[in-house]
């Protein structure tokens, strides 16, 4: 990709944004959801605490009667009552309707509270019309995202026993990832690359164009499909827009997200859900990943992409982390480096190690600094070299490895085919460690 004027489709940074009518609708949606939750909690609290409030007021009324002046009572005058202050916000205890013969009437208080609550609930802040508006806001957001979502058609041919040629086609979802002066790059799944010998892309406006497989990473379950700009009209190209990338720091448990692409197994579907868990450093092959977990619908094979409530891309469904009823979403911040290399037609370096950083507890137990190896992929360069689970990796070439992140950064500086030396510490079985050195050829991920 060349040219200073090329558009950057994936460029994660935190910037300000204009409040458009659509963004305002999205914010209203979030406010409505929070308001409904607060309203439900308030109603439940009212039902729960009302009997306790009534009992408290009755006791205070009894105490007030006990402290009344008897002589004044004998004369038939009203006995003074020690008035409770600020018992309930919005209920006036001086009201004559609440005081009867020197006693604070609990029935009157109950009636007053119920009257105030019923008045509020009879004119709620959120109506059926608001709920319809919420639904429309989600629909609008999905339609907005569909401008960047494409259909990827993977076509394969085979020959029968009778020498007839049979053609089969499979459809996946893709996302416009980047472009340069000559081509448009579409991000999709590795399954799409495996399913076809030839490819075509259908854009959101119905424009269909032949495409070629640029590069694929089986480990990451992503591939890049390239569409030549040649033959595409100027009007089409001028309206081609990219989807903005959201900051991973804005995602936390409880964040609402929108799934687009093929979350229901069909291209063009969408779903709404909530992040249930965030893992900032999930062990992965040759590094770590930030993974979000949700019960939202997801289909990693056919392509599912996730947006925050501002319509920004935050991640892609990950097959390795997903299971039935649980969507594992790899952060776009971690996918970006992989997609950038694939988009340039480069191969990805591969060592084949998974591990964890040395925790305080592990260090306290005498495990030295480095990356603790938890898995060596079968058939990988590391496996063939003789590296084992439980080894402590300390160096790759001249780079020091102190945790998962320094290991990942060192691997990404390598190129497929490079020969590199790795230094490790292996337990001697007596509490000590022996330093070992391995040389291996960097593979293709």
Brief overview, please?
This protein is of the alpha+beta class.
Biggest sheet record: 6 strands, antiparallel, barrel
| N-end to C-end Cα span | 22 Å
- Portion of residues in helices? 25-40%
User: Would you report the number of β strands?
Assistant: 22
Give the count of structural domains.
4
Mean pLDDT score: 79
Cα gyration radius (Å): 32 Å
Low-confidence region ranges: 1-19, 71-104
Q: Shape, please?
A: flat
Q: How many helical elements?
A: 10
Give a topology summary.
Blueprint: H1 21-66, H2 70-74, E1 99-100, E2 103-104, H3 106-121, H4 128-145, E3 149-159, E4 165-179, E5 183-188, H5 190-194, E6 198-202, E7 208-217, E8 222-228, H6 234-239, E9 256-261, E10 269-284, E11 287-294, E12 304-307, E13 313-317, E14 327-331, H7 332-343, E15 349-350, E16 353-357, H8 360-364, E17 371-376, H9 381-385, E18 392-396, E19 399-400, H10 404-412, E20 419-427, E21 433-441, E22 443-444
Antiparallel strand pairs: 1-2, 3-4, 3-6, 4-5, 5-8, 6-7, 7-8, 9-10, 9-12, 10-11, 11-14, 12-13, 13-14, 15-22, 16-17, 17-18, 18-19, 18-20, 20-21
């Amino acid at each position: 990709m060349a040219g200073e004027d090329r558009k950057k489709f994936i460029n994660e940074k935190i910037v300000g944004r204009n409040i458009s009518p659509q963004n305002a609708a999205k914010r209203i949606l979030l406010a409505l959801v929070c308001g409904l939750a607060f309203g439900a909690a308030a109603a439940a609290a009212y039902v729960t605490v009302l009997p306790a409030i009534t009992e408290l007021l009755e006791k205070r009324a009894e105490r007030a009667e006990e402290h009344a002046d008897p002589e004044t009572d004998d004369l038939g005058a009203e006995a003074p009552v020690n008035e409770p202050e600020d018992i309930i916000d919005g209920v006036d205890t001086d009201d004559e309707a609440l005081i009867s013969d020197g006693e604070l009437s609990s029935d009157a208080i109950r009636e007053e509270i119920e009257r105030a609550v019923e008045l509020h609930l009879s004119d709620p802040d959120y109506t059926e019309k608001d709920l319809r508006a919420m639904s429309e806001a989600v629909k609008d957001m999905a339609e907005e995202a569909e401008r960047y979502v494409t259909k990827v058609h993977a076509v394969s041919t085979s020959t029968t026993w009778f020498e007839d040629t049979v053609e089969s086609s499979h459809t996946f979802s893709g996302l416009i990832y980047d472009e340069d002066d000559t081509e448009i790059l579409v991000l999709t799944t590795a399954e799409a690359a495996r399913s076809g010998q030839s490819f075509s892309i259908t854009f959101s406006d119905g424009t269909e164009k032949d495409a070629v497989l640029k590069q694929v990473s089986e480990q990451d379950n992503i591939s890049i499909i390239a569409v030549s700009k040649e033959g595409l009209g100027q009007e089409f190209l001028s309206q081609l827009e990219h989807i903005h990338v959201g900051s991973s720091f804005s995602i936390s448990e409880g964040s609402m997200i929108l799934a687009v692409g093929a979350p229901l197994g069909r291209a063009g579907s969408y779903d709404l859900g909530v992040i249930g868990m965030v893992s900032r450093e999930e062990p992965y092959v040759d590094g770590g990943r930030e993974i979000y977990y949700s019960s939202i619908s997801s289909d990693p094979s056919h392509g599912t992409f996730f947006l925050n409530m501002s319509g920004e891309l935050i991640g892609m469904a990950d097959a390795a982390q997903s299971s039935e009823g649980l969507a594992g979403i790899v952060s776009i911040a971690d996918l970006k480096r992989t997609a950038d290399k694939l988009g340039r037609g480069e191969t990805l370096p591969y060592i084949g190690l998974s591990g964890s950083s040395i925790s305080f507890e592990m260090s306290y137990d005498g495990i030295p600094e480095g990356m603790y190896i938890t898995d060596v992929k079968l058939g990988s360069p590391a496996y063939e070299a003789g590296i084992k689970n439980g080894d402590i990796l300390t160096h790759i070439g001249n780079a020091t490895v102190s945790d998962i992140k320094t290991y990942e950064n060192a691997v990404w500086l390598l190129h497929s085919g490079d020969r590199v030396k790795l230094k490790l510490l292996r337990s001697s079985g007596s509490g000590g460690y022996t330093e070992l050195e391995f040389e291996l050829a960097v593979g293709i991920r």
